[in-house]
Specification:
Layout lengths: L3 H26 L4 H14 L2 H6 L4 H14 L1
């Protein structure tokens, strides 16, 4: 059973993943789309942050690579 803290941590990370995927998809269609670039950079900074490491043991750099690879295949 997960604690409310774990549920919140998971929800934060899942929202970041959703935002990152969306930004990458938009950038695939429009590489110079500034709002998507900003979101992509913000989420990458989050995935590499101390706060992210407090929320999960999943390596942020590996997550970034997997998500980029996933969007490239679409």
């Amino acid at each position: 059973m997960t604690t409310p803290y774990e549920n919140l941590a998971n929800a934060i990370i899942l929202m970041a993943v959703k935002d990152y995927r969306s930004a990458l998809k938009k950038l695939k269609k429009r590489p110079n789309y500034e709002p998507a670039k900003i979101i992509k950079n913000e989420v990458e900074r989050f995935f590499r942050s101390d706060w992210y490491r407090e929320l999960t043991s999943v390596d942020g750099n590996i997550l970034i690579k997997k998500l980029k690879s996933e969007v490239r295949e679409i």
